[in-house]
Amino acid sequence: MNALTYLCRSLLIEKIKISRTLVVWLAFFAPAFVVLVAFVAAYADGEKFYKPDVNPWINFSGHILVGWALFVFPIYVSLQSALYAAIEHQNRAFAYLYILPVPRWSIYVSKLLVLTVLTGLSHIALYGFAEAAGWLLGLLKPHYGFHNHSMHEVLSKGTLLMFFGGGGIIVIQLFISLQSASFIVPAGFGLFVTMAGVISRGFAISTASPYLWPICFLNNSLDMGDWRYSYLLNSLAVFVLGALVSIQLFNRKDII
């Protein structure tokens, strides 16, 4: 049996596990929360944000992208990975997984792929919800001018590229979640590192944190020429390196 067959078998097992669980719903709830907050703020106090003949999507998209990149994205991955790993920990299922007729690496890689796909799904949802919210604001508050302007390219590319900027967060949080049987440890760690990064953003050393790379990529700008694509490469490098290290440790770990 080749490696691809092993991986497909493990992926099928993971698909069955997460079906009809909160793991899938969280991928939609997190982006919906960000967009809802921006929508309510725009609907209630839009006169403070939107001026005549100025593209309202600039301010609206900025609130969504920055709010997601700085706060919700890393916290979402922390909660998602902890919730996902809890499926195994709560049922003490790791001992069973290790006697399945598949190599250990395929178990880890399948979990990493599932978490990555769920994270990618949340970014697709973020873009869709943002476009829908702007369209709805155009109906409810036509004087804002949402129907007269657009930022499809910036919003779509911003959400897509932020996903790649979060690769480091994904691999780190999955590793912690699989190592700890406590839901609080990975969730709390992710929250602590996120808040520490937000507080220390004024210091140059803070840019070394993978949890800040999505917002560092945006560079506080919606001008695609100002975006710092090097952070995407850093994130992908950490993702690959972290996955390789995790596979080695996962292969050596004894599960009782």
Verbal overview:
The protein is mostly helical and 256 residues long. It has one domain. Helices cover 75% and strands 0% of the residues. It has 10 helices and no strands. It has helices at residues 3-18, 22-49, 56-90, 94-97, 104-140, 152-165, 167-179, 184-199, 213-218, 230-252. Helix 3 runs antiparallel to helix 8. The longest helix is centred in the middle third of the chain and has 37 residues, at 104-140. It is elongated. It starts with a helix and ends with a helix.
Q: What structural class do you assign from the helix and strand content?
A: mainly alpha
Distance between the termini: 27 Å
- The SSE string, one letter per element, is HHHHHHHHHH
- Which spans of ≥5 residues are poorly predicted at pLDDT below 50? none
User: Which assembly state applies to the chains in this document?
Assistant: single chain
Number of domains: 1
What is the count of DSSP helices, taking H or I runs of 4+ residues?
10
Percent in strands:
under 5%
Q: Could you report the average pLDDT, rounded to the nearest whole number? A: 90
The proportion of residues forming helix, as a percent range, comes to: over 70%
- Shape estimate: elongated
Main sheet summary: none
Using DSSP, what is the number of strands?
A: 0
Please compute the radius of gyration using only Cα atoms: 20 Å
Organism: Dyadobacter soli
Keywords: Membrane, Transmembrane, Transmembrane helix
Pfam families: ABC2_membrane_4 (PF12730)
Protein name: ABC-2 type transport system permease protein
